[in-house]
């Protein structure tokens, strides 16, 4: 029996979420974390730790014993005390960034605003965007097709025109798919596993989709088979040689990304799918096994 190790097993390496939120459920503590991160950011990379008095000046309390009590509560998990001052630990910076992004507090809304661009399904220029429940939705009002619906933090609206918001949304969704196909969770960086799912809302109109699930935080990314190809070097080169840039139109204007028009299911056990990538002359044919692109060939 390794008795020495039994002692370390009694230690609690992970703070339970309820305890982490209890530690943060106080205005003075949140002001302390925000002040600490602000002072550290302002001082720049490699700066000295923040002194007690400088940190106290960031907080709306003159009572230094009261401030010190809350500061001590934050120590270890959120704040590191190093000899002559304090530093924000990674969880503190994450909390402050989430507050700045408005993830917990802001409620942006947008109802069926007309936007530029045309529908890849019917060709009409009657696209609408709405924002509700922290998701941005793009649909075509002419053929009533939902083109995309994805998480977008409310802070993404800050100091941006609607056109800029749409650009940011396009890039965010593309990057999420890139991360997922590389096996990295865009929310928590843990491993993501890819598979094929048929558990899809019927109104989406897809029989099967690649799905990537995080093993740690349960975040999932559900792109179309076509979206798996946007970053593929052969697909990028195929378009570049024709003077086209797949990054130019937003992904919801590309039929490759928001329909299964070019997708053929070849087998279900195991899942094998081919995706045609159309061009002016000729096309590419991609073979996808499970959620992995295994081959791209010119036809
Ligand atoms: Zn349409
Ligand atoms: Zn995750």
TrEMBL record:
Organism annotation: Haloarchaeobius litoreus
Domain (DUF7347) ranges: 17-99
InterPro entries, per the entry: DUF7347, DUF7351
Protein name per UniProt: Helix-turn-helix domain-containing protein
Residues of the DUF7351 domain: 116-290
